[in-house]
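Kindly review these tokens for lecture notes.

. . .
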Amino acid sequence: MKYCVQLINAKCLLVDIVYVLAIYNFQLSAVSANETTEPKLPVDLVEPLVDSANSRWFFFNSATRPFGMVNLSPDMVTSGAWNSGYRYNQDKIRAFSHIHAWQLSGIPVFPTTGDFKGHFGSDAYGSKYSHDNEIVKAGYHQVYLEDYGINVELTSTTRVGFHRYAFPDEVEKHILFDFSTFLGPGDTGPASVRLVSNTEIQGHAEMLGTLRRPKSCMVYFVAEFDKPIEELRGWKRGELLGAIDSLEGEDIGAYVVLGNAGGSRLMKVGISYVSVEQARLNLDTELPHWDFDEVVADSRTEWNQWLSRIEIEGGSEEQRSRFYTDLWHALQGRRIVSDVDGKYSDMTSEIRRIGQVSLDESGKPRFNIYNSDSFWGAQWTINTLWHLVYPEISEEFVNSMLTMYQDGGLVPRGPSGGNYTFVMTGASSTPFIVSAHMKGIRGFDAQLAYEGLRKNHMPGGIMSKAGYEHTTEIGGGLEYYIDRGYVPYPLEDQQYGLHQDGAGQTLEYGYQDWALSEFAEALGKSDDAAYFRKRSLNYRNLWNEELGWMWIKNRDGSWHQPIDVLAYKNGWVESNAAQSTWFVPHDLEGLAELMGGRRKAVEKLNASFEKAKFHGFVSSRAHSAETLRENRRVYINYGNQPSIQTAFIFNYWGAPWLTQYWSRQIAESVYGGISPQWGYNGDEDQGLMGSLAVLLKMGIFSMKGGASLEPIYEIGSPLFEKVTIHLNNEYYSGDSFVILAENNLKGNPYIHEAKLNGQSLDKSWIYHDTLVKGGILKLKMGYRPNKKWGSSEMQSPPSSFR
């Protein structure tokens, strides 16, 4: 069958779609047409287009590997950190860029035909497309550019983007490299490009600093072509220059001329943040051949291996598809920035330095260096998922953060391009590192880690800095917190950074102090343990007895006016009092006492959920609507991190049936469906909310983020009949842990009875050490709650203070 596409010049281009799809399906199909009864592999259930109508720059993924330096995909909107990149509802593609990361972008390319117009900008040279002529899979993206009659296919290795373009006949063809565009979070500064041979060009682009990443970031590339190019041409400040051997400066671009012959052309683009030579090393090491289909198949295999660490049975195909899409996101966003040999760019000082990761006995880097948004909220998401299922990744991230500590003097809470960004608030890396140690992940220097974390919790450390506070150490209000037991709002008469929201900061610091106290205790530092443990109780200073909620304090200790527990921000970090009151994960028994006891606390929290049910437990379905004032007046918001632990609090207060009910409601409504129009109801945040969705659907959680001396998992309501977690034997002694949920129908969220390894289990939690030895947790589900199961005080999860 031939597929005819109407071009803007009124010609019809006949494209053999059957051939293209046949090759693609041969590589990507898990089963043949006569084996449709076989279950799909996890990789084939991933739907990258979920929520893509609401993408921010780093959200969308297609042609990439797990944590890949390269995340090659189409950009419909090229400018801005928010509402940019791949945007499903936009009708024009303006670039195919290789980097979509936290405060990083780079190397946008675009194939064209006919009269060249790249120097007029992406609004001029971009092309219309249709989702009807698009295929998006884990590790692969295909789309047809209607304005040029070009079929584009994209795939990648970890550090190399691989392009295949099917061009029409009898028309001049080009591939442009646009270094004159604002790209994602930042503008493009000085750049260069040089013709190396008739099959290779190389160059770099300086991605200018931003509010969040104040220092520039250098991105280097080497592009190789499978067939000789006719020549390299360029433009500068919108003026064409003709043939060039090299070009450098600001507001430039270059394009290779391919001639008039039709057919398929291949291009490989290796990148590095270190040098052109390192970009070439990455390319030569990872992709020495030209077999595009082999790379697609390799990517599919690699993704399936990662995703298959968790196997699920039961549920609908849509639910299984959404589960693996969530897991796919949990392994994305936070990206490798070191090269294949371990070299990386260190921008923590005034002068850029090239660092080197230590090598193992075989000469390979012991770990990768990572770019990452904040770990704000990670205690309830990637802490639990990664430490349990991907402990080797957790270990790499810890070592990456400790490397930055050695380079720049602070453990980061969100590094970008070798820069500190000081994103969000507090010391959000502390629970991540502490919980890794507590769960037996020990491939890092614990004493060095403690040294760095303790520094972060003291004046001059990262707790002293508000969001993006680059030049001062005031906005964190840490001195107030230490001296008075709370951070006031307003802190001062001026703003030193973003998120100077004292009450919210106080609650975060309390939990993070508790996590550090546990680490100190584990390392035998009893004085430090007592000191930080005492500080962790500062949350009590915000309890307003008359109001019945946590509330904001002024500098003089008086209650801030006017009082409105639904008012967003102005004392609360991306939250309000109604949501943030529950942010005491380390001392829920103490919080219940403030509320008048367990029964009253349960009633209060349940009432919040009943109200939240009317707005779907979120502020909105998209971040753009979430920012509207009227949508933020909500009691519970599972579209952002501050209150995502609330459903599991009931386990601690003798009402585990309410944890089961509400966590199932949230899993199905907030994180259900596979529509491009919604999916995370706010900001997915580089795997945080994808990880949360996975945990909810597995039916496990960790209130304290795994930072206890003896970490535990709380039990919720699994969405599937069977969940098998394959454990990494280099870290854990067991082979697998299985969660079986009998009679697990849609209307049966409640646990009637439980058995662990054949023995009756009468509590709603299990120790981490028990789980990682392997075994079977068998749950019998029902439509009525069993209010006796796990509800006595003796059966509740252990308290940190009692």
About this structure: The longest strand covers residues 104-113. The chain has 20 helices and 36 strands. The CA atoms of residues 143 and 769 lie 48 Å apart.
